[in-house]
Amino acid sequence: MSEKYITRTLETVIRKAVKEFPAVVLTGPRQSGKTTLLQRLFAEKYRYVSLEPPDVRAAAFSDPRGFLQMYRPPVIFDEVQYAPDLFPYIKEAVDAARDKPGQYLLTGSQNLLLMERVTESLAGRAAMLKLLPLARREEEGRPQAALPWEVKGRGVAPSSVTHQELWKRFLRGNYPELVAHPKRDLVLWHSSYVQTYLERDVRTLRNVGDLTQFQSFLRALAARSAQLLNLSELARDLGVAVNTAKTWLSVLEATYQVIVLRPYFANISKRLVKTPKVYFTDVGTLCYLVGLRDPEHAASGPMGGAIMETAVLSEVFATLTHKGLEPQVYFWRTSAGAEVDFIVDSERKLIPIEVKLSATVRQDMASGIKEFQRDLGDRAAPGYVVHPGNVRLPLGPNVTALPITEL
Predict the structure, then answer these.
(1) Which terminus of the chain faces fewer neighbouring Cβ atoms within 10 Å, N or C?
(2) Which pLDDT value is given to residue 200?
(3) Which CATH superfamily is domain 10-130 in?
């Protein structure tokens, strides 16, 4: 019996891109569904070639022109980071038929290498799109559902998800394979995922060095999720140089495992130098790396707040990314100690979002948002206090308490 396919928000965007660009590059973490998406949309017209097998890779490397002659467009080249030398020849082929859209569909799980090659060879010729793990709205069969601030009035219908079920979902995460197979052993899957990621993606990137130490860094970073990240302290704890820790963090960001969040300042240059926070792209990966296996323990333990924040950020990030947008998300923090977890820069308005672990909504939960709105004036939009309960209610004229299931 064929597996049920989960419709992705990005489908609309990618169909449009294929009609407008000679090449489309689809990146994202391993197992986010890139191959499945392309094969489902384009299998009838496009030949599919994976560049991961060593013999195929060797053929592309030894005779790139001959390889492209053998696999003429329209063609899907999967995991194209394994054959980066193909890019200049793809450029040559594209330029020979510049007015013909949708010739090459390319996928890869390493943003760093792909972006370098695309910039060098396919600038202006390729649409760059990203596919992250599932947004909850995709999982629930409403892939085009708007975010709360994108619609007037009530957006998503209330959900009857129980507290236990919500935290089970957090432990599971949002990779399509786990969502499609709810009985899959989560620990075994995430363990295999991390190991595959280390051996296939990380090993091929430069300046990584000792994989065992890198894995220790990965777990130490997970334990510091949602906190201000002191890389010097983290490097000292692990016994590595600060520059090594910086390189490793950039590797995790380039392979879509983490999101680096910077503080919001009106002065853009200030955002780049101030201390960031780091979140994992998938909440299930975070739970696995910090050793959480039980929903109640996850909800009541010291990582509970970080897990909730990660779930909210991943939903916002995936929803915006799958619309073909580049999410502009920050956090806000004053020297006096006032803070807001997330600031979403959307159409010149700044949407403040505060995440709370308690399902019991109180007025004081909105204090950070209200201070942000006072400080930013007209630039600040109405804000949201997102919580794990089922109650939606106003916490003032411009703040709404919102269940996470309605985000």
Answers:
(1) N
(2) 79
(3) P-loop containing nucleotide triphosphate hydrolases (3.40.50.300)
